[in-house]
Amino acid sequence: MSDHRRLREVLLGSFNFQVAPAHSEPGTCPAPEAILLNFLFVNLVVAVLGIILGHSNVMNFISCGMLGQRNSKLWTVMWIPVAGLQILANILVAVSIKRVPGYDAGFTVMQLAVFYTVRPRIGWILSLLFSVTSYPSRPRFRTTASLYPHPSSQPSVASQVYLLPDYRQNHTATPTSKIYPWRCAALSQFLSEMALQIFALYNMGRTTVFAARHGYYIIGNLNSVAPGHIGKSAHMMYSAALYWLCGQAVLAFLGLVVAPVLVICFWGCGAGKSKAVHRTVICMAVFMIPLSWVACWLFWVGYVRLAGDL
């Protein structure tokens, strides 16, 4: 037991979130694979609910017409409550774990809530995939009243019989534009994901510094401290944290390049500003998935396996 405690302190450092029975023998914890599968299932359920509720027609119905408007720019502010709900959910989970009766928790609520921001989320990826789908808007015909705004200038009923078919033949409908029902939700979730990645920077940075100070990035050092599968899990976690930081450096450089383009598109593209921003966000997501999302998955898998072994 003392060896496990020493390994937890040596390998996990400040992320030693231990919940132990206060007056009884330690129980059996779920296997790491079961924890990861449960997390994946919950993540998929939340992502599917986000797709259903993110449709503009559904949002328009739920909000009684206040949300889900065509060409809405509310995505510029709606990412704030989306990120807030994610952080609130993390806080509620941390509170429920810490207040389990009969157990002593060696962490604070905010420590665990901020640590949970490292968890990979699939909802923003699915939203971006669905955001490229569209359907044409309904064509709108102009009546003869719009051709002759003054009642005195309108033709007789007999002449309308000849005017209306000719008019509809040459002016069948106003140009049909495409409707992207998931665009606003996708942009909101993408901005929310970027905000949550800022919170994840704290934990990823601490993990990398902790591993660097103990020499865990030097080949062979981890095997001497924790040989076998424990050392492999720790290596996966520390390598993923370093990989995430390197990926964020690349994304930060791309952000500096893309930011002026977004500003120009948002202020100078008129009605097509959302379309221009949407295309830019999709290009950013292509780089963000392998550099950030995959790194979070590797970190989380390594941490769950390491914590389960210890």
List the defining traits of the structure above.
single chain, 310 residues, mainly alpha, two-stranded antiparallel ribbon, two-stranded antiparallel sheet, 12 helices
Question: How would you characterize this protein structure?
Answer:
- The chain has one domain.
- With 310 residues, it is mainly alpha-helical.
- The strands form two sheets. A two-stranded antiparallel sheet has the order 1-2. The protein has a two-stranded antiparallel ribbon with strand order 3-4.
- It has helices at 2-11, 32-54, 56-62, 75-98, 109-115, 123-131, 144-147, 157-170, 183-213, 221-225, 229-268, 273-309, and strands at 19-21, 103-105, 135-136, 178-179.
- The chain has twelve helices and four strands; from the N terminus they run H-E-H-H-H-E-H-H-E-H-H-E-H-H-H-H.
What is this entry, summarized?
This protein is mainly α and 310 residues long. It is built from twelve helices and four strands; from the N terminus they run αβαααβααβααβαααα. 68% of the residues lie in helices and 3% in strands.
